[in-house]
Design a protein that fits this description.
The chain is of the alpha+beta class and about 270 residues long. It contains seven helices and eleven strands.
Length: about 270
Amino acid sequence: MGRVVERVYPVSVHALKTYEPPLTALEGRAFDVVRRHGKFLDLGAGELHLVMHLARAGWVRWSERLPAVPPRPGKGRLALRVRLGEPDDGAGFEVTEAGSQKHLAVYVVREVEEVPGIARLGPDPLSGDFTAEAFAGLLAGEGRQIKRVLRDQSVIAGIGNAYSDEILHAARMSPFKPAARLSAEEVARLHEAIGTTLAAAVERSRGLALKDLKAEKRSGLRVHGRKGEACPVCGDTIREVSFSDWSMQYCPGCQTGGKVLADRRMSRLLK
């Protein structure tokens, strides 16, 4: 903190979601606070906030010595470069996004609530206010499948596809179970699984270098991304349900009484 922005280079026009204040308004200001709002990263610089949502393939990469030559706008991975001044002259960070689908979002705002995604966020699952009773209230009358509810950022902030798979596995619960039909015991079990799964993920990542974070995340996952492998709890084969642009993994032995979920969007348990 206290590091002064020397230059900001917007490389990808598609990533920039706000134009007033301009990105250049950050130049000459010092970053004084870092916060997280769900999946949004908030770098405060006085009265301004540089807010980023990295989506699936975004990444923030710190460098002690950034290239002196300004980057050229293009179709590559680089979306944003922030170069710092003294005493970090030449250091800074780059924001990149891999893949052909570009969902990275960058905002400069005076109030973080100006970012639509932040204004709609539900409660943080690691906050003290996220009690079992509060969680039960969120699920009351909710007709969707529990997997979809957990991923909905307006219901609970910060849980994505990977950790919703992990939470449901830890809670021994089918991803297709309607949220409103959970018993009081199931709600309590799921609430506990949310807390323990996310807290363990944060603890495993503490102090790791950026280059090691993705590998650490995968190493801590029991079912997500492990289709065809043996479940570490019961030994059953981990299965997958695929949708048009995402997929989820689960263990039949732990979560669905041994039944396999059909691989189609409106699937129910096979009879």
